[in-house]
Amino acid sequence: MSNQLKWLFLSFSIFLLPISIYAFQADSVANSKELPSEEKINEPNKSNYLPNSLEDYNEAYYQLTRLNNPLGLAPNKFNLQTPQATLEHFVINCRNKNFKDAAYALNFNLFPNNLTEEEAINIAQKLYFVMDQRVAINWDGISDRPDGQVDISTTTNQAVAGAPRRSVVFGEAAIENRDIIFRLQRVKYKDYGAFWLISANTVENTEDLYQVYGPTFLDRYMPTWSQAKIGTVPLWKPVLTFILLIFSYMLGKVAILLIRRIALSFNKPLIMALSKKLGVPAALATGVLFFYISLNELISYSGAYSSTIYALLLAIVIASGTWFFMRILDFAMRYVAEHKIGDLTSENSHESRQLFTYLSVARRILTFTVVIIGTAIILSQFRSMEKLGISMLASAGLATIILGIAAQSTLGNIIAGIQIALTKPARIGDTVIIEGRWGYVEDIRFTYMIVRTWDLRRLVVPLKTIISDTFENLSITSPHSLNEIELYVDYRIDVEKLRMKFKELLENSEEWDKEHPPILQVTEMTEKSLKVRAICSASTAVMAWDLHCKLREQMVAYIKELEKGIYLTRSRVEVKEPHFNSKNIKKPNE
């Protein structure tokens, strides 16, 4: 278990370090002195807010009555004519630490009318810090046309292709349970030409976003010598990341030791077995969760892939928790099956077989459900997957038809498994005859049933076959079984003497369960022999088979010894005087 955990964390470390270094390369934070303050801008009372600046609706732009920017209208030298140009203006000036010029790309109309120039610059700096930390801008998807139109029409953008747009989304981030959408909006102020700004709603959320995604304590107070860079990455960040990985690994080892110590203190086999099952998944979940929280709180990720890295770490945490829960579920099911269910091979094991079948089907259904829920939660952490899901829903009708046709057999077998669990035509441990082959039901899986034949082979039967086709279940109501012995004897045999001998042999057999009396009957006659059928019974199908084989052997031996075997089947041939006799032929000299 220790080696498994060691290799698991080693692989995780090797995988994460290159990603973290790559993500740090776009880091915009040079040193702690250049970081904006975490204090919110003081908001005066509501009387300082002006009325709504929007005029009548226009599909090409938002008509504004005022531009609440303390810096004034943007100079003509700034290109704010297209969505891409406005966003480039903001990002480039922020990278060059020219936050005053960058603030011209922001719409401050939802802020108080007494907003100062210094506060506007501070907001621009904070917004850029948040964007650099959490927003992956898809520059190819942002139009470089004044009307914001999409040049190429496809099945997914026909609604906007060729039509003027006055709002463009360029990113998103989450605050608690609320999604913040980053937008560019086309506005027209008085008689000036229309131009693009980062929307007032996006700018208004800057303070809340900065409180969540702002710089950490270490970003502000790390010593100057630690700010030395490897390429574009501050030295302390990869070093601290590696230290956190080591500490997370040690924490996982400690979690395993604690689980074992707690299990030993109870001194119960059940808890000891459970601790062995839960050790590795608990250690992985503990180590990764600690790494995720500490990385999020101590080190400030930035760059286009930072949101993906955090989502990936959270996905690993969720996967570890899912694995941990599946281990508990699997252990509970196995414990009940092994300790609370009786012997499935005994002759009175109907309830045990039924309960074991319920547990087997329930275990697989619950495992499948847990995996589906865990996968759904993991995929929900990646916003690209959410967009993929929306695109799939757009063509849900066709996709449903295709999926239904492709998975018809699989889904049918899964539903058949649920039917088997409810209607119980076959249970684990039952003796069945399927397609002329005799065997035991060894296991019932999601889509098929495994039957162990008498020669120790495994017959894999789709569950739909069990529901739709006919098969024999020798244990469905009672394990008691009847077998018949067929004998062919000569016409001259004394059937009553044969019947008495069969009764004697059956009553002296230990396998006979005395549930069915000895019966021997003449069931058929042919031109050569009589067909005699004898019936024997036993408590189980296996014992009935063994009894019937033994009695057949003994009855054949008795017939063979009876008057030197004259009553065995035989073919009769009648010999008559031939028309031609060689004795009547005369010789030539006679």
UniProtKB/TrEMBL annotation:
<feature type="transmembrane region" description="Helical">
    <location>
        <begin position="239"/>
        <end position="258"/>
    </location>
</feature>
<dbReference type="InterPro" id="IPR010920">
    <property type="entry name" value="LSM_dom_sf"/>
</dbReference>
<keyword id="KW-0812">Transmembrane</keyword>
<keyword id="KW-0472">Membrane</keyword>
<protein>
    <submittedName>
        <fullName>Mechanosensitive ion channel</fullName>
    </submittedName>
</protein>
<keyword id="KW-1133">Transmembrane helix</keyword>
<feature type="signal peptide">
    <location>
        <begin position="1"/>
        <end position="25"/>
    </location>
</feature>
<dbReference type="InterPro" id="IPR006685">
    <property type="entry name" value="MscS_channel_2nd"/>
</dbReference>
<feature type="transmembrane region" description="Helical">
    <location>
        <begin position="361"/>
        <end position="382"/>
    </location>
</feature>
<keyword id="KW-0175">Coiled coil</keyword>
<feature type="transmembrane region" description="Helical">
    <location>
        <begin position="307"/>
        <end position="326"/>
    </location>
</feature>
<feature type="transmembrane region" description="Helical">
    <location>
        <begin position="278"/>
        <end position="295"/>
    </location>
</feature>
<keyword id="KW-0732">Signal</keyword>
<feature type="domain" description="Mechanosensitive ion channel MscS">
    <location>
        <begin position="410"/>
        <end position="475"/>
    </location>
</feature>
<feature type="transmembrane region" description="Helical">
    <location>
        <begin position="388"/>
        <end position="407"/>
    </location>
</feature>
<dbReference type="InterPro" id="IPR023408">
    <property type="entry name" value="MscS_beta-dom_sf"/>
</dbReference>
<feature type="coiled-coil region">
    <location>
        <begin position="488"/>
        <end position="515"/>
    </location>
</feature>
<dbReference type="Pfam" id="PF00924">
    <property type="entry name" value="MS_channel_2nd"/>
</dbReference>
